[in-house]
Structures are given as structure tokens and as C-alpha cells.
Amino acid sequence: MGENKKIIEAVDGFKRLEGAEIGSDSRKPLIEGLYKKGIKHAEVLEALTAWTIEREKIVEALGRTLEACIGFEIDRANIYAEGGYRNEALDVLYEALYIARQENKLELEKEIRKEIAQMDGAE
After folding, report:
1. pLDDT above 90 as % of the chain
2. How many domains does the chain have?
3. Rounded to whole angstroms, how far apart are CA atoms 15 and 11?
4. Is the pLDDT confidence value at 107 over 50?
5. What contacts 24+ positions apart, CB below 8 Å, involve 66-69?
6. pLDDT tens, 36-68?
């Protein structure tokens, strides 16, 4: 199977598992908490930690592949960005980009660059 197909399947699998196991609404309270209370608020930190633990279970269910890990990081970055923490979101994406480059995963690198470009365009 080609690398591009594996990436698409991993990202799609991540989204499918997320929707089935956790519910598609789980992001909304996090985004609202970030936006209204801030990233350092105890309640928001607790919610982010719980969300991260649940997402790590999804990554494990997908075999902890690089694609699954990057899918998680993209999702995390999007939550930060939607919650008003664009710089933190970009930091997450640049870290993921570094890893994709180190592993010579050109399709993953392309996907991450696309996410970065979208965030840069949303200034």
C-alpha cells in the first residue's frame, strides 16, 4: 500500500475511532474553555489532560503508527487554534513537521504543511 493511502487511512481511522469512542462533541467544551477561561485555568487543564488520555487510547488502537501520532497532533493543534491559541497550535504543528521530516515521510510533511498554511492564512 502506498504511503499516501496509509496516511489517509490512518487519519480517517483516527476520526472514525474518535467519533465512535468519544463522540464528536468532545472538542466543543475544550475549545470554549480555552477561549473563555484560558489555557492555564485548572478546569481547562484538567479537561485537556482527560482529552489527551482518551486520544492516546485511539493512537494505541491504531497501532501507534507515525500517521496516527501525527493525526493526534493535528487534532490537538486544531483545538488550540479554535480556542484562540494560534501560536501554541503552530508550535505543535512545527514539532510534528520536524518528526515527519526526520522520518522522511513526505506525504505526512505535505499534510502538516497544509495545516500550517491554513492557520497562517487565518490570522
Report:
1. 75
2. 1
3. 6
4. yes
5. 66/99, 66/100, 66/103, 66/105, 66/108, 67/6, 67/7, 67/9, 67/10, 67/11, 67/108, 68/10, 68/13, 68/14, 69/99
6. 999 999 999 999 999 999 999 999 999 999 999
**DSSP per-residue string spanning the chain:** --HHHHHHHHHHHHHHHHHHHT-GGGHHHHHHHHHHT-TTSHHHHHHHHHHHHHHHHHHHHTTS-HHHHHHHHHHHHHHHHHTT-HHHHHHHHHHHHHHHHHTT-HHHHHHHHHHHHHHHHT-
Residue at grid coordinates 500517521:
67
Q: Domain range holding 108?
A: 3-121
Q: Which three cell numbers stand for residue 100?
A: 515527519
pLDDT above 50: residue 119: yes
